[in-house]
Amino acid sequence: MLIEQISVFLENKSGRLADVAKILEDQKINIRALTIADTTDFGILRLIVDQPKKAEKILLESGFTVRTTDVIAVEISDEPGGIVIPLKILQEANVDIEYMYAFASKSNDKAFVILKVGDYERVIEALIRQNIKILNSQEVYQTEPGH
Amino acid sequence: MKYWNPTFECMSRDEMRNVQSERLVDTVKRIYHNVPFYRDKMQKKGLEPGDIKGIEDLSKLPFTNKQDLRDTYPYGMFAVPMREVVRIHASSGTTGRKTVVGYTRRDLDTWAEIMARTLTCAQADNHSFIQIAFGYGLFTGGFGVHYGAERIGASVIPISGGNTKRQVQIMKDFGTTVIACTPSYALYLAETMEEMGIDKSELQLKTGVFGAEPWTAKVRNEIEARLGIEAFDIYGLSEVIGPGVAAECSHKSGLHIQEDHFIPEIINPQTEEVLPMGEKGELVFSCITKEGLPLLRYRTHDISTLNDDPCACGRTTVRMNKVTGRTDDMLIIRGVNVFPSQVESVLLEFGEAAPHYKMIVDRVDNLDRLEIRIEMTQAMFSDEVKRIEDLERKMKKEIESVLGINAKVKLVEPKSIERTDGKAQRVIDKRTLE
Known about the structure:
A: alpha+beta; B: 434 residues; alpha/beta; nine-stranded mixed β-sheet; four-stranded antiparallel β-sheet; 11 helices
């Protein structure tokens, strides 16, 4: 149920994100989702890619500080209020969200929400109980346009 | 008053040599019998006190290094029983181990005497109001100037460092005529005055004594113009006694060394060979009147030159030129001695190996700023901003507690600190000292 997210330490200076993107492109690694948490001095680039193991290895070899973290991906409807349902469930289950980000799926009227939480067991249980679909890694990594 | 103690300050060179010889012979005897560390050092060189018959034998004696003080921490090099020590000061040292210095009653009296000479050199007297903005505490700056100011009968304002607006207000209200602080703080005072809308014409300030960090002719001109005073350089280090080792007179052609208390030498820092008068090298001092901690041939690591030509002021003591640099990696930041190894010792606590780091020292708005860039490692990294910021804060706190000064800590990407021959350059000092 958990999927792998790649986090990369970046200084806030121009061109660094492009450097990462180029390295991944050269290895034919596709970025499925991307977000940056930034402060005035540094940023943490968080990536969902189709080949996380390979991405981690190549980024480490290129001299970046990299960490692989388990996150969960939740499917929601790509429509107004789509994100409200899972958020409400998590609120009622009283779980803390460390961070989250969302991206639209090209395949249909669905979108994905990536969640980093403290207690995955409780979160997964709460979501499943309310019939929220939690995506497996294949669904997240390999979803092709039109699939 | 022109001189505080003309007997010694204006003594002929021959007489001074006699005074120094006599005092050196006596000091060597005392040290040999009271400090096992020195006795061992001398015996290893096959020396007995009787071999030192005068100043001509000085170069036979072993050198003393800061490391010797650390190895015998805290009191191992004191030459008197602790019951005779009435004061203890300390300077910052690497890995939290400070350099401890002790004074007997007579040492404090000597300190007052040489600081009285220093302040007299700077045209202060019993009519002066001396505001001492050097820190009071384990640091020797505040107390040293204080004793001298009392000795000459000035009205002493012992305000210590910090609280700059209050400093300016008191300077104005109390009619301060002499200010004592670090040169960078003097400029900061000038700036604060301008911000507060106080003009130098509203002050009674006439002169200032500045030391504890290197400064340039350009900074002197700026201090003099902005505060409307004459600025004098003072020199000292706690291991020798503190401020008062040497002082500038109004001719500003080097600092007069209080030679009847401290014998200066210039050596080649690599070969340790004594260099002739006028050549550039490392300053070395031998204390010949101190009781508590009479160090012999103490290596300062300060680079300077000596000059024994008579000075136009009438003093005959040897003068040292402004210190132009260091022979080791010690930095002086806001008057505090800082070594890169201190930062390294802190960083070692954050992983198995210390991450690469670089210290960048700059002077912004006339105040020294220290930034420490630290390369992110796999062990330190997290996908959460909060954790990295916590780590940054923790590093900053520990570095500041070891160094004793504020620092900015910035985490940078791996391999972003340039290396030469595989070795990272630890320090970049951007402060201009031309």
